[in-house]
Amino acid sequence: MNSQQPSLDKNRIRASFDAAAEHYDNVAVLQRETGDRILERLDLVKLQPATILDIGAGTGVATHALSKRYKKAQVIAFDLAPNMLNQARQRGNLLHRLLSKRGFICGDAEQLPFANNSIDLIFSNAALQWCSNLDHAFVEFKRILKPDGLLMFSTFGPDTLKELRDSWRVADTDAGTATHVHNFIDMHDIGDAMLRAGLADPVMDVENFTLTYSDVHQLMRELKTLGAHNVANERRHTLTGKTRIKNMIAAYENWRINGKLPATYEVVYGHAWSPAETKNKDISIPIIQLQPGTQQQ
Questions:
Q1: Taking the CB of residue 203, how many other CB atoms lie within 10 A of it?
Q2: Is 113 a member of any domain?
Q3: pLDDT in tens, 241-289
Q4: 1, part of any domain
Q5: Could you give the angle at the alpha carbon of 31 between the alpha carbons of 267 and 95, nearest 5°?
Q6: Long-range contacts of 188-194 (CB under 8 A, 24+ apart)
Q7: Inside any domain, residue 168
């Protein structure tokens, strides 16, 4: 496992996204965009999956799209937060909900409640950054994928929220090394983890997005609405003083361009296959080679 991989509080992750579920779609613009881009990549894959697992399904945007794309497939929405799955159940009109073969399971991506060789396609958008042990997650993905099964995902790289991280670093010069912003994993380390797990032909690429805000408070409100709290076990467990917050805001002002404060998101895309002796895959994406107890909802 990459030594920079954060130790995460899964209970806090679940609680954050449970609290965010009702209003998540109001601000999840980037998440919808990255999900759409993974779906577009499926156009380049000759695959007719019978069983699809949407890991980190959230409010079910991709689950709904996958069930419309692959009408004969069973599509399972899988998420750590029960309230997110409650939102996902309501997506689509009544007829679609009655006719589609959708399932909803609450659980941890690092301990999947599925049989070996049971899934044709794993789809995961903006969720892997919430895994404490990415190596273990990829081992689980490989375990449940059928031979020649496909994993497609997006996650966030280390330049994500670099402006906010840098501003906290300035504010914390006399306050130790507490973690304020999630430590995201480098693209190359993610690719190495897939290889260690035994996934075949991993391919990665990266894309940077910049969102802009009128002030830091707007950014912080949006992150809270997304449920993207600091969940590292190394986070500061005491209240952050007003002076330190003021210093962070002042430091962030140094990033202001054309009247707006930028927030960078480094989006990492990847795909890999479950190995088999005879592989039947056709994909030409323009890219760079390179816990216990789950609950049926």
A1: 17
A2: yes
A3: 688 899 999 999 999 999 999 999 999 999 999 998 544 444 443 333 3
A4: no
A5: 145
A6: 188/290, 189/2, 189/4, 189/5, 190/128, 190/134, 190/155, 190/268, 190/270, 191/270, 191/290, 192/2, 193/1, 193/2, 193/134, 193/135, 193/138, 194/138, 194/151, 194/270, 194/272
A7: no
What secondary structure letter does DSSP report for 255? Answer: G
Cβ proximity of 180 and 168 under 8 Å: yes
Task: Answer yes or no: are the C-beta atoms of 53 and 46 closer than 8 Å.
Answer: no
Residue 214, amino acid:
S
State both tokens at 62.
């991709």
pLDDT on residue 182: 80
CATH number at residue 196: 3.40.50.150
Question: Among candidates 137, 130, 132, 166, which has minimal Cα distance to 53?
Answer: 137
d(CA 88, CA 81): 11
Nearest alpha-carbon partner for 152 in 179, 181, 180, 122:
122
Say if residue 164's pLDDT is above 70.
Answer: yes
Confidence grade of residue 174 (pLDDT, cut at 50, 70, 90): low
How many structural domains comprise the chain? 1
Question: Is there a domain that residue 147 lies in?
Answer: yes
pTM for the full predicted model: 0.86
List of E strands, the chain? 51-55, 74-79, 102-106, 119-125, 145-156, 200-213, 261-273, 295-296
Q: pLDDT tens digits, residue range 202-241?
A: 999 999 999 999 999 999 999 999 987 655 445 454 445 6
Q: What letter represents residue 170's amino acid?
A: V
Instruction: Give the pLDDT band (50/70/90) at residue 94.
Output: confident
Q: Structural domain of residue 32, as residue ranges?
A: 10-158+185-209+264-296
